[in-house]
Amino acid sequence: MTRPQLLSNLTAAGLLMALLSACASHLDQDAAAPVRTETAQWEDRVHVEAHPDEVLLAPHAEGLSTAQNQALDGLVSRWLSAEAREIVVSAPIGGTGGDVAGRMAVAARQRLIAMGAPPASVRVTGYDAAGAPGAPLKVGFLRYTAQVPQCGGWENITATRNNTAYENFGCAVTANMAAQIANPEDLLSPRNETPIDSGRRATVLDKYRKGEVTSSAKDEQSNGVVSKAVN
After folding, report:
1. What is the pTM of this model?
2. How many CB atoms within 10 Å of residue 217?
3. Which CATH architecture has domain 50-144?
């Protein structure tokens, strides 16, 4: 093999290796970041922000006052309406009257539970009061709001051109879904699963082992028969 032929073969081999390397790199990028559809790309334009909904309770040696109980009742009502996940009762630590704040934190938690908050959703914690006298008890939750994209500016929908998606395609659906969701926090992460009904599961398994029917009794109102008209 002559020297020019050898150089030509080496150049061709190097070019082939470069092309294969580029293809491998392109495949790795596709695997790491799959191409999103025109409608899915709008999901990144929904911004969820958190704002504290909080009440401050002054410490009282005799416990919660009538006004403080009313403030907690209103907080629970807003919490239920927002379908939030947790209410946090923060007692001051390091200030004067720490024992009073501790008793009030327990009383506040009991009041929240009595007004409808599940015990597992009310958490008591502490915060550094930096020695401030009369530091308040903080009770609240995070309220989430969704900032939806602004849709509009449609082009001439009769123009086909390159048969590509229009600029606002998918915007309205994404904006409507984000605006209608009860708790925008669900857009950030899914909720925890509720515990299983172990009692019902044991009942069904017991019937299954005995060869009995495991389904619930049929509801007579769902048999599809048209009711008689009242004369």
Report:
1. 0.60
2. 6
3. 2-Layer Sandwich (3.30)
